[in-house]
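Deadline looming. Please check this record:
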Amino acid sequence: MDSNINLDTLYRQVIMDHYKKPRNKGVIQEGSLTVDMNNPTCGDRIHLTLKVEEGKVIDAKFDGEGCSISMSSASMMTQAIKGKKIEDAVKLSKIFSDMMLGNEYDDNIDLGDIEALQGVSKFPARIKCATLAWKAMEKGLQEEQN
């Protein structure tokens, strides 16, 4: 059997798992920064809350609605940035953006489940879906640093 088919199937399963059982779904109530963003092209919207202390993302949660790509990406992103320094979370977002745009990126970093979204780069119309949560995170962390 073709190994690409197996990998595509595995990636689809990872994406659907995050979509059906999202990690970090909800809202951080106190002491959090909030970012609301939407993708008017397809109707995806995200409400992201981040708790940042001493330059580190302590907690991250999201709420919203959208396609499987946008919601699973938000789930993966919140998992990936928890416990990271702001600059490391932003760096990870840059790597993700490069991966989505088909640019070269630092593949020495373990992306974990996020790697399952790599195939989205072949579908330009879906890139905005995948990057919505990441752009919201970057916006929130930039506001936190200013």
Summary: Residues 3-145 form a domain with the Sufe protein. Chain: A fold (CATH 3.90.1010.10). The longest strand covers residues 44-53.
